[in-house]
Specification:
The chain is of the alpha/beta class. The protein has a single domain, classed as Glutaredoxin (3-Layer(aba) Sandwich). Helix content is about 25%, strand content about 20%. It contains five helices and eight strands, in the order H-E-E-E-E-H-E-H-E-H-E-E-H. The strands form two sheets. The chain has a six-stranded mixed sheet. Strand 4, helix 2 and strand 5 form a beta-alpha-beta unit. Helix 2 runs parallel beside helix 5. The longest helix has 17 residues. The protein is globular, with a radius of gyration of 15 Å.
Length: about 190
């Protein structure tokens, strides 16, 4: 694995830390957050729409053997709109049509239940022209995705390798470095 010093020099860091090696990415999520290095639990999201807004499904099992990039957001989250959603749009567009990676967005509701409603999933998808499945996970008091992946809020990005190991789990990711890494890993 690359050393932290070399990663800083290489410019692969943003909000959190992104270190790229063949088998893992270094995570610098706040203490107590994230599950980097662990097996990715299956998603427990009951509501999914496809890129056209039609009901669909999305699961890790259905995307076995692929890199999976999950973007957690809330419709009212300023950080999601300023950098989280534009970042996932940039990465997903750069890798569009790549059969080795799957993208999905999940509205992970942990506050603002009256605002972060199921109808906002499609509005957000259209606002950013996201060509990926999008889900709504209100959980009970906190979204099930947030609890399973120990996220620290939104925006939050999760990258799972083809062996279903969580290799990145943090607030921000360097889009250009992630694109370069995923192109190399899926070539």
């Amino acid at each position: 694995m690359l050393s932290r010093r070399n990663l800083i020099k290489s410019g692969l860091f943003t909000f959190g830390a992104l270190a790229m090696s063949k088998t893992a990415l270094l995570n610098a999520a706040p203490a107590g957050y994230g599950i980097v290095g662990r097996h990715a639990p299956e998603l427990e999201v009951d509501y999914w729409i496809d890129e056209d807004g039609n009901p669909t499904s999305f699961s890790l099992a259905d995307n076995a053997g692929k890199w999976i990039f999950l973007k957690c957001f809330q419709s009212w989250c300023p950080g999601c709109h300023s950098h989280g959603l534009p970042t996932v749009k940039k990465i997903s567009e750069a890798l569009a049509g790549n059969p080795g990676i799957a993208f999905a967005g999940i509205q992970t509701v942990f506050e603002g239940r009256g605002v972060n409603t199921v109808d906002k999933v499609r509005k957000t998808q259209l606002q950013y022209d996201l060509k990926m499945p999008m889900g709504h996970d209100p959980g009970e008091n906190r979204s099930r995705t947030m609890m399973a992946y120990r996220t620290g809020g939104t925006p939050w990005m999760i990258l799972i390798n083809p062996d279903r190991e969580v290799v990145f789990n943090d607030f921000g990711i360097n889009a250009d470095a992630a694109i370069e890494f995923l192109l190399r890993e899926t070539a």
